[in-house]
Amino acid sequence: MKIVVGFDHAGFPLKQIVLDAVREAGHEPVDVGTDSAAPVDFPDFAEKLGRKIQNGEAERGILVCGSGVGACIAANKMKGVYASICHDTYSAAQGVAHDDMNVLCLGGRVVGVELAKALISAFLSAEYQGDKAGGERLARRVGKIHKLEEFGQLGD
After folding, report:
1. Rounded CA separation 58/4 (Å)
2. DSSP state of 99
3. Which residues of the chain have pLDDT under 70?
4. Domains of the chain, first to last
5. By CB neighbour count within 10 A (0-12 exposed, 13-18 middle, 19+ buried), where does 44 fall?
6. What is the pTM of this model?
7. Which of 83, 92, 110, 119 has minimal Cβ neighbours within 10 Å of its Cβ?
8. End-to-end CA, the chain
């Protein structure tokens, strides 16, 4: 699986750790930057990452800013991008399995190296369960998310 990865300057210190963790999980990272600790704006990298997912150039993404919050907010403004900040492995896996999350957001100033590796492993090893036997309620809920994204309301 191709995994697009993006970082702002506050996420940059975790960049090599993230790239290595993606490779160690058997996936191919697609790096959209940044390439230094010089100040940059996280929405620029959220957009680059989101476009790769929208265009089918990557199936999932990992986005790292200082807290993970700003990157998450920016990424979720893009259609078809379902991002969540996760600082525990349960949420990183369940976000994929139950909610079809496709972008993991991390706080570079919040998580350490070992936790980042564990979160990435949990995120990348999880599979969406809504299209599997017994996953009807998950699919129904994700369908409602898509409806909110498309129309701004659930309606009737």
Report:
1. 6
2. H
3. 156
4. 2-128 (3.40.1400.10)
5. middle
6. 0.97
7. 110
8. 37
Helix (H) or strand (E) holding 39: none
Per-residue pLDDT, 155:
77
44-63 residue pLDDT tens:
999 999 999 999 999 999 99
**Residues with active-site annotation:** 65, 98
**Whole-number CA gyration radius for the chain:** 15
Q: Report the C-alpha gap between 106 and 108 in whole angstroms.
A: 6
What are the helix (H) ranges across the chain? Answer: 15-24, 42-54, 69-75, 89-99, 113-125, 136-151
Inter-residue contact 58 to 2 (CB < 8 Å): yes
Q: Are 21 and 65 in contact (CB under 8 A)?
A: no
Contacts of 45 (CB under 8 A, 6+ apart): 6, 7, 8, 32, 33, 34, 63, 65, 71
Tell me, what's the pLDDT at 156? 62
Amino acid at 87: H
